[in-house]
Amino acid sequence: MQLIDTIVAEHEALQAVRRDIHAHPELAFEETRTADLVAELLTGWNIPVHRGLAKTGVVGTVRCGSSSRTIGLRADMDALPMAEHNRFPHASRHAGRMHACGHDGHTTMLLGAAQQLARLRDAGGFDGSVHLIFQPAEEHGGGAREMLREGLFDQFPCEAVFGMHNMPGIPVGQFAISAGPVLASNNEFKVTIRGKGGHAAMPHLAIDPIPVAGAMMQAFQTIISRNKKPLETAVISVTMVHAGEVANVIPDQCVMQGSVRAYTAETLDLIERRMREVAEHQAAVFGASAVFEFKRNYPSTVNHAAESAFARSVAEGVFGAQNVVTQAPIMAAEDFSFMLEQVPGCYAFIGNGDGEHRLPGHGEGPCLVHNPSYDFNDALLPMGASFFVRLVERWFATPRG
């Protein structure tokens, strides 16, 4: 492992920043304190800062030399609306908010890279412009999409853009980088089934929407097993069913909601169409009616082939080829996908280990993301920062084809 010595020397300072951000989590588009901290540090390193994209977004630009070449590096800043079970000193100080996905670590790794890039700039160490993108609202709200709508790549053009996410279960010191789909699209559905309420003792005088929901729930799974191509991956999960208020009353309606994940637009189009048909016709079979709603939140995250090969080569140079593995696609979603739709790039995964790094006072649950016992592994900070810096150096040292 060939980390950058000057970044390793800043490990303690980076850890303090990461833990400070962890202790003060902020939700989507509310990352004011985090953005202030990011902007203050960047400014202290003489990095020009632009603020206000997607409300709380921060973009710093490190320019060196006379080249017009560019590269973008992105980190997310927001936390999740959930309670933290950890009780170590840097646990969340705000009830109902937690950095349970490692965005505190992602932000800090990019800050570590920014500090080193400023050193290189002052020494004339590269020729080009690096745009450091600190994005709000990845978890909820599509902060990447909003930054793009407000002109992110118009104001800060990038030949390519790279991002990184920690991955529990992958050993510390390993990276997972692959071309093609690596994360699924994130979509939501809602079915409102309208029947006819009545007395529970006289169901023949009512149209009960609850059995309709049960039949519909089962029928949805046949879309996965019988309509979708067997080699295409997709998931339909019913996660909420709400009906009724009194035990002896058949309700007028039942509302069913859930999530759909898929890797390709073609598969998603098929699922949406068939779910609508199933909902409407299944309800009609029972004499009820259904209103089907479908919302597409985030598209699939698809890494570009050339940029993925480039990132993989850089990671192999830093961590060794034996420590760069192929990332099997997973069904979680990520709004970095919006950036990859506009600019070529790659989303890499850095191993967060299995949780043994957690301090005394952590919760008893596993160290998985979106888990109240999660904590980012601070050992990753110089690794991720070194990877980002080496990406920049190699990018500008490699002529464009």
UniProtKB/TrEMBL annotation:
The keyword Cytoplasm does not apply. It holds the Pfam family M20_dimer. Keywords: Hydrolase, Manganese, Metal-binding. Signal peptide: none annotated. Residues 188-283 form the Peptidase M20 dimerisation domain. The keyword Hydrolase applies. SUPFAM superfamilies: Bacterial exopeptidase dimerisation domain, Zn-dependent exopeptidases. InterPro entries: Amidohydrolase, Bact_exopeptidase_dim_dom, Peptidase_M20, Peptidase_M20_dimer. One of its GO terms (biological process) is diaminopimelate biosynthetic process. Mn(2+) binds at residues 101, 103, 139, 165, 370. GO terms for molecular function: metal ion binding; N-acetyldiaminopimelate deacetylase activity. Its cofactor is Mn(2+). The Mn(2+) ion enhances activity. NCBIfam families: amidohydrolases. This is Hippurate hydrolase.
